[in-house]
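Sample entry (188 residues):
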Amino acid sequence: MSEITNTPTLETKRLILRPLALSDAPAIQRHFNNWNIIQHLASVVPWPYPEDGATTFITRELERVAAGEEIYNWMLVLRGGDGEAIGNIRFRPRSDNAKGNRGFWLAERYWNQGLMSEAVAEVNNFVFGVLGLEVFYVCNAVTNEASRRVKQKTGAELVGYTELAHHNGQTLAERWRVTREQWLRRNR
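Predicted structure, serialized as tokens:
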């Protein structure tokens, strides 16, 4: 198996969100192996990022899906670009993990352009429109202002805090709720 086949391709004005594939390993390795990204992530992500980190991640995700776990894993690609992945959104609808149902990262050179908010909005459309979920939860380190802004722009409601160890030493994480009702109301 070379890609996650239950993940549909989604499109936005500037992006194509396509299933994670083994061929994404070089781009993930190049973009994700960056302290500015990793520092705000939960400490389950290895740091220093190993040379085979991307391949290991993709292989593990493919194995989980093959074993029946429901995981949607999109790679973000610029429309009209060279096809290289510049970020990732991972969504696990049935997860009750403290980290929540969704995680994402974006290559640093693409920060502050609204790309992640655009991608997350399309994933929210999929989650509420296709999967039919009523609610899901997301988290971020309290020090991760950019992740907070994405949540605020895409209809999440801060509902509290939880303890999660992050690479930068931060242990307090914001916990957000995203509901179908709020999402549909804001997108009328």
